[in-house]
Amino acid sequence: GDIKIGGQGTGEANTNLTSLSFPELMQVSSNFEVSSNTKLTSVSSSKLETIGGELKIDSCLLLTTIDLPLLETSDGIYVSSNAALAQFSLPKLTLNTARLIVDGNDALTAISLDALTRSIGSDANNKGLEITDNKKLVSIGLRSIESCLCEIDISDNTDVSNGQSSSLTILLGPQCISLGSDNPCYTSATF
What digits encode the pLDDT tens for the residues 122-177? Predict the structure, then answer.
């Protein structure tokens, strides 16, 4: 079943919850959702390997840590509007079978999805792989990506309001294939 901690409706947020830890949890058969917990600083599950549904962590303004070191597969990832989150890493994630969105995390400087080999799927409402509006983002690691059977949108990740330019580096592995083309993918790009 689902794991849902907090929510968007009145009375659904856990206003005093500061950390979540699931030390023995290995699998979630459906969705894993953590939303609108105003004092939450960390989410961890040291043994979690599979989420049958979507991992959704959003609107937790003080969240600084997402620690899911063994997560290998998910059916979607949505990490959004976590103002204090500076790094997002899923070091063992190899397969994502639905949308993968990292959006609007004000302090986010680094995303590491270096084990991800395939991201599959999108629908009319999303682009499949979308990394947008993370104004302090300087690096994205996708070193193992082989294919992304979806539209990719990496945009609006620099803050130009202060008049200074910043750069974003995207690291891709040499095995990246460009579907429908004989041209290889870039192995890195800096914007």
Answer: 666 556 788 999 999 999 999 998 877 667 788 888 776 665 557 888 887 766 54
- Nearby residues of 97 by Cβ (< 8 Å), 6 or more positions away: 73, 74, 75, 76, 120, 121
- Which secondary structure element, helix H or strand E, spans residue 76, and what is its range? none
Computed from CA positions of residues 119, 101, 172, 86, in that sequence, does the dihedral angle turn out positive or negative? Answer: negative
Other beta carbons less than 10 A from residue 113's beta carbon: 24
Instruction: Kindly report, residue by residue over 92-132, the tens digit of the pLDDT.
Output: 999 998 889 999 999 999 999 999 988 876 666 556 788 99
Instruction: Report the b/e string of 32-58 with b at 16+ CB within 10 A.
Output: bbbbbbeebbebbbeebeebbbbbbbb
CB 38 within 8 A of CB 15: yes
Rounded Cα distance, 147 and 26, in Å: 27
CB neighbour list of residue 21: distance below 8 Å, 6 or more residues apart:
42, 44, 45
Paired sense of beta strands 147-149 and 129-132, if any? unpaired
33-88 pLDDT, tens digit each = 999 999 999 999 999 999 999 999 999 999 999 999 999 999 999 999 999 999 99
Q: Any idea which residue has 């950390």 for tokens?
A: 19
